[in-house]
Every structure is written in C-alpha cells, then in structure tokens.
Design a protein that fits this description.
about 475 residues, mainly alpha, Growth Hormone, Chain: A
C-alpha cells in the first residue's frame, strides 16, 4: 500500500512577522473555525446583556415612579443614570481593552452585570436604584468596546461571516434581547397576582443576573486573547498559538528579516483626532450621538408612546411593544447583517437614516390619531422606524468605528464613539419627558433632526470602512 507524500501530510507553517501577517492568515483561512465562532457567540452574549439591561425599565419606569413617588427630576435621574454609567464605562473600557488586552477586560466585566442587576432589583429606595443602574451602565460601557473588538478580530474581512456582517449582528442580538425582555414582562403579567403587578420591574431587573452568570460559567473555557492584539504588542509567539488554537492555522514566529515595523500608536484619546483618524472619529461620533438620541426617543419610550399617544392599555401596550420589536426591529437587524456583507457601510446607513426621517415626519404630522386607520398608520410608522434602525443606522453603528481604526486603537475608538452615544442617550432620557409633556407628538419634529444630520456628515466624509481591511497592510486585490 502506497503512502501519501510527506509534504501532503504535514501542514505548511506560515511565517508571522507582524499584525498584517496575522490579519492576512485570518482573511485567507479555508478551514472551519468553530472555536472562533464560539468566541464571537460569547461576545454577542455580552451585547445581549447590554441590550437587556438598557431595556428593562422602558416599561416599568411608571411603576418605579409610583412606588417611590418620584418627582420629574428624580425620574430623569433614574432613567439617565445607566447612560451616565455607560459613558464612564465606554471611555475606561475602551482604553483598558487596548492597553491590557481583550481577554482580561472581557473576563472581568460580567461581574458588573451580576452585582448591579441584583442590587437594582432589590433596591429599597430610589438612591440605591440610581447607584445600581449607574454601575450597570459602567458594565455595559466596558462590554461594548471589547465585544466589538472580538467580533472584528475573530472574523474574516470578506465572504460569508465577514467582519462587517458579524459586527452588524450586534443589532439583531440587541433586539432579540429587547424582545425577550418584553416576553418576560408579558409572562410575568399573567403569572403575578394583580395586586403585585408593580413587582414587574423588579423581577425583570433581577433576571438580568441569570444570563451573566451563565456567560461567566462557560466563557473561561472558550475565550482567548485576540491574535491581532497580541501581535500588535510584539507578542508574536502568543499570536501564533492563538491562530493554532482558534483557527487551526499552522504558523510560526518568523526570524526578523527586516527592521522592526514602526511603533503602534499610543493608547491615548488624542490619537483619534490626528490624521488620518480625525474625520472618521467625527463621523462616528455624530452617528452615535444622533442614533442614540432618536433610538431613546422611540425604542425606550415605545411603551409610553403606545399608551399615551395611541390610547392603549397595559396588555395592549406590552403586546404592541413585543410585536413591533419582533416583527420590525429584529427582522431589520437580520437584513442589516446581509446588507453589511454585500454593500458599502455608508450607503446602507444613509438609506436607513432617510427612511427614519420619513417615519418621524409622518408621526409628527399625524399627531394624536383618533380613527382606527390613523392608529394603524401610526403603528406602521413606528414599525418602519424600527425596521430602518435595524438594517441601517443600528447595524452600521458598530461597523463604522470598529472597521475604521486598526487593532492598536480599535477599542479606544469604539469606546469614545459609544461614550458620545451615552451622552446622546442620557440627554434624551433627561429632556424627552419634558419635551413630551410640553410638545406632545410635536416632539417628533425635534427627534427627526437626529435622523437627517448624520446624512450630511456621511455625504461630506467619504471614508468607507468596508473597502479594505485596515489591519492587513499587504497589497489589496481588486474586486
């Protein structure tokens, strides 16, 4: 019996000299990467928790106000405290992730979710609730930069399951969490006695600790450091090991045949405003502020909009919120993953913003609908806004910054953009109740500005983050 030639049985070992070599090996791999996919799945699990925790009080805030007899000022503090926490978490988490690595930060931040969820759910007074929600926001803020770094750095640049598609997956995951939150509230609505329905907000907050504990239990087995980050630190030995463990890629640390590459940019925020990153930082920042402002106005206040503007009761409000999230937002997010794979990021984002602007203007014009046809049309416009958010701005919100910066400052760039997003959300949570009380449905005119402003910036700055892999400095092939 003849044996196979030796060269066909021993895998070829690829030399690794730099971050660019690591990026090239990931982009050109052909084998299945189940291990890397598990890392991506766990990173998305963090996103799930982020969305769940940010959604939990969107329905229960009215019960919180009644239980603690809150003034409008304290109500604003309760709703905005989590967003203030995300601002701190984004800035600190992004910097820590680039400075000390993805793995160590990701392994630590789930503790924020467990502690804060339990403290918030059992809060004896409003000040404990505000503090717990702030701590929860810190956890959310730390998680997003590291999760986006994992999604970008454990994916190929092109083809099925590419970087843009996996980054865009954060959006349907976000809406899946929002939908689950409303499903949980829906179930508790029937399970709890009527005299204890005010406990809904506490139960939903406490449940947030469960998935966090599950992720803590399983991620230590699967999580690994990013090979791109290791190579960026000059630790090519670790990069080679991770390529083998996560992808089955056989590589070796190459002998230095040329002078060492230039030092990577320092992990400081000032770098984001130097050439060539400045324009990208501005566009990503504008997108984050505007998207978060209008998302908060519609998605967070969706139950209130349905209850107050459309005259819906408790059962109808929960049902409509659940249906809109599942039918429009989630499906839009799934479409966004496919569009991110096939079309330029700028084009998809502009199309989504334009549809949102149309929906918001329509809602402003229709005002308080009285007839059934008007109510149906208003609900459809809310659905259109959520669908456009899912496939356009929502999906591209992470694609744009994560693929516009190299590994050395990726998490810092994402964290800075998300900190600006937290400012937009905190501002919306604080002033929108005031605007809603003063303007009613005319509030949508104000919110519509947040949908059209980013279009002008995207048209003016023509950087396309999905054009080529920013970590791969080898010559790019023409499509």
């Amino acid at each position: 019996m003849s044996s196979l030639p030796l060269e066909n049985t021993i895998p070829v070992s690829e030399p690794v000299r730099s971050v660019s070599d690591v990026a090239r090996l990931i982009n050109t791999r052909t084998k299945n990467d189940n291990y890397a996919r598990m890392i991506v799945f766990l990173a998305l699990g963090g996103v799930f928790l982020d969305a769940y925790d940010l959604t939990t009080l969107s329905y229960g805030i009215d019960d919180v106000v009644r239980e603690f007899q809150l003034s409008p000022l304290l109500t604003g503090l309760v709703t905005s405290s989590i967003m203030v926490g995300t601002i701190v978490g984004n800035l600190v988490g992004g910097w820590l992730t680039d400075k000390y690595g993805r793995y160590s930060v990701f392994m630590a931040d789930m503790l924020f979710f467990v502690v804060s969820a339990i403290a918030a759910g059992l809060a004896p007074n409003v000040w404990v609730l505000i503090g717990a929600r702030f701590l929860m926001g810190v956890g959310v803020g730390i998680d997003l930069p590291v999760a986006m770094s994992y999604l970008a750095e454990f994916s190929k640049f092109a083809g099925k399951g590419n970087k843009a598609s996996r980054l865009a997956a954060w959006c349907p995951m976000w809406y899946a969490a929002s939908t689950l939150c409303f499903l949980l509230i829906f179930a508790l609505y029937f399970l709890l006695p009527k005299e204890h329905l005010a406990w809904l907000w506490r139960a939903s907050l406490l449940f947030g600790a469960v998935p966090a504990l599950l992720i803590i239990a399983v991620r230590s087995k699967f999580m690994n450091e990013s090979p791109l980050w290791a190579a960026n630190q000059g630790d090519l030995k670790s990069a080679v090991r991770i390529l083998r463990d996560s992808y089955g890629i056989h590589a070796h640390e190459a002998e230095h045949e040329a002078p060492p590459a230039a030092a990577a940019p320092k992990v400081i925020f000032r770098v984001l405003f130097e050439k060539p990153w400045r324009e990208r930082t501005i566009v990503a920042g504008v997108m984050n502020i505007c998207i978060s402002f209008e998302y908060t106005a519609i998605a967070f206040f969706l139950p209130s909009i349905l209850a107050q503007f459309l005259g819906a009761g408790v059962f109808e409000t929960i049902s409509a919120s659940l249906g809109l999230n599942a039918l429009f937002a989630f499906t839009g997010g799934l479409l966004g993953m496919r569009l991110a794979w096939k079309y330029p990021s700028r084009h998809v984002a502009i199309a989504g913003f334009a549809l949102q602007f149309f929906a918001l203007i329509a809602l402003a014009l229709i005002g308080h609908p009285q007839a059934i046809a008007g109510i149906v049309f208003a609900v459809l416009m809310l659905g259109l806004w959520l669908f456009a958010e899912g496939f356009g701005p929502g999906a591209q919100l992470m694609v744009y910054p994560a693929l516009s910066y190299p590994t050395s400052i990726r998490a810092t760039g994402v964290g800075f953009s998300r900190a600006l997003s937290g400012i937009g959300s905190a501002l919306a949570l604080f002033i929108l109740p005031i605007l809603q009380a003063a303007l009613g449905t005319n509030m949508f005119w104000v919110v519509s500005l947040a949908a059209i402003i980013p279009i002008f910036f995207l048209l003016a700055v023509r950087h396309e983050p999905t054009l080529h892999d920013i970590d791969d400095l080898s010559p790019q092939e023409s499509p």
